[in-house]
Amino acid sequence: MKTKGFTLIELAVVLAVIAILAAILTPMVTNYLEQARVARAQADLRTIADAVKLYQRDTGRYPIYDSSAAYGTDTVSKADFATGSGNTPADGSGGSSWVLGTGVATTSLELYLNNNYSGVVVSSFPKATFNGPYIAAIDSDPWGNKYLLTAGNLSKGSTNHAFVISAGPDGTLQTGRDVAATANFAASGDDIIAVIK
């Protein structure tokens, strides 16, 4: 008696078709995942930049000073602020003066945005006042690295662009840190940025 079923050739053809479809679809799905990571990093950077701008709009100063005396003398607490719990990105920008390691503030940017470290007198409208908190906790970027804010470039005496940056998928900063505000500014490599000023 003959039973109905698939022959070995039919099974091999079906498996070959499935393998071909998987080979075609895998790069497309991987590309969508990478695009989603980039979109998340861009959204995070815009959120951080907007919080810094809002703090400055409310208080008349950027959240980079440890006290009102430091604001008066324009003494920034550190050259760069980091946010997120990830790794500090590597500097691959060819010595563009990124101040990583000891130059990154040990107090996170979230604390500077959510506390009145710069000593603004809390008062009522229309005077400058601290209305924080300005941002919730920010995680590391989608590739496990910290976001960096060029805090030194937000000082009153700086003539450079100030921005928030993610090192992107490769975890290495290729964008120069100090770019004159009079020059055109764009991210290098796979870095993702949000310009503040």
List the main descriptive attributes of the protein structure presented here:
197 residues, 4-stranded antiparallel beta sheet
SSE layout and pairings?
Elements: H1 8-59, H2 68-72, E1 81-83, E2 90-91, H3 109-114, E3 147-149, E4 163-166, E5 172-173, E6 192-195
Parallel strand pairs: 2-5
Antiparallel strand pairs: 1-3, 3-4, 4-6
Stretches where pLDDT is under 50 for at least 5 consecutive residues are none
Number of structurally distinct domains: 1
Shape: elongated
Radius of gyration, Cα only, in angstroms?
24 Å
Order of helices and strands: HHEEHEEEE
Secondary-structure class: alpha+beta
By DSSP, the count of extended strands is 6
- What's the number of helices? 3
Strand order of the largest sheet: 1-3-4-6
Major β-sheet annotation: 4 strands, antiparallel
Distance between the termini: 83 Å
β content, as a range? 5-15%
Mean pLDDT: 84
Helix content: 25-40%
Word description of this protein:
The chain is of the alpha+beta class and 197 residues long. 32% of the residues lie in helices and 9% in strands. It has helices at 8-59, 68-72, 109-114; strands spanning 81-83, 90-91, 147-149, 163-166, 172-173, 192-195. The chain has a four-stranded antiparallel beta sheet with strand order 1-3-4-6. A two-stranded parallel ribbon has the order 2-5. The radius of gyration is 24 Å and the shape is elongated. The mean pLDDT is 84.
